[in-house]
Amino acid sequence: MNIFRLAGDLSHLLAIILLLIKIWKTRSCAGISGKSQILFAIVYVSRYLDLVTTFISVYNTFMKLVFISTSVATIYLMYVKFKATYDHNHDSFRIEFLLVPCFLLALLINNAFTPLEILWTFSIYLEAVAILPQLFLVSKTGEAESITSHYLFALGSYRALYLLNWIYRYYAEGHYDLIAIFAGAIQTILYCDFFYLYITKVLKGKKLQLPA
Amino acid sequence: SSTKDAHDEL
User: Could you list the residue ranges that cross the membrane (chain A) (predicted)?
Assistant: First the structure.
C-alpha cells in the first residue's frame, strides 16, 4: 500500500458515497445513468469473486464488500425506490456494445485462461468503459448537477491515482500488470474532457453545462 | 509481472 493507492481507493469510496448522498438527499436519481451503475455492479461482482478463494487483507476484503454492496444499493435506489425519477429516455446507451467486446477481449488477452482470471480481466476492461453511458447521458441532457459533477470527478480521479500507484510500484517493487495499466490509461483518458469542464466551470461555481 | 500473484488491488 502506498499513498497513491490509498488516495485512489478513498477517492473511489468518496465517489460512491457522493452518489448515494445525491440520490438520498434529492430523493431523485435524475441525471444518473442506471446503465453505468449496472455495468459497475457487473465489474465489482466479476472482479471480486476471489473473495471466496483468496484472502489478501482485512482492508481488501472490507473494501470489496463495500463496493459490491453499495453498487447493489445504488441500483436498488434507482430501479426500485426512486424509479419514478429515473431518466430512462436519456439513458439510452446500449450496454451490450460494451459488454460483448470486453468479454471477447478478455477471452483473447488475459494473464491466464482460467474462469476467475478471465472474469477478472473482463472486469478490468469493462470498468475502463463503464462510465460511457453516464457521459453519454450528460452529453444528451447537456448539463449535470454539481454533486453529480463531484461524483464524476472523484470517480475519474481514482483510476488516475492508480496510474501513479502503478508507476510507483514498478519502481519500488518491480510489480506491474500490463492489462490493468493499459485499461486504466484508457479509463482515465475517457474522463479528460470532463476533467477540463470540471476544473474550468464547476470549481468556479458554475453549473456544468455543455455548449448547445 | 503479477501473472502468478493474486490481485491485491481493488
Answer: 62-80, 92-113, 119-139, 151-172, 178-199
Q: Using CA atoms, how far apart are residues A108 and A103, in angstroms rounded to an integer?
A: 9
What was the ipTM of the complex prediction? 0.84
Whether A151 has its CB under 8 Å from any CB of chain B: the answer is no
Domain containing A163 equals 3-203
Residue A143 is classified by DSSP as: E
> Quick check: is A161 in a domain?
yes
Q: Does A120 reach chain B within 8 Å, measured CB to CB?
A: yes
Please tell me the predicted confidence (pLDDT) of residue A53.
93
Residues of A in contact with B6 (CB under 8 A): 50, 54, 56
Structural domain count, chain A: 1
Strands A208-209 and A143-144: antiparallel
Q: Which three cell numbers stand for residue A42?
A: 457487473
pLDDT digits (tens, 9 = 90+) for A52-95: 999 999 999 999 999 999 999 999 999 999 999 999 999 999 99
* Partner residue opposite B1 with nearest CB, options A5, A56, A177: A177
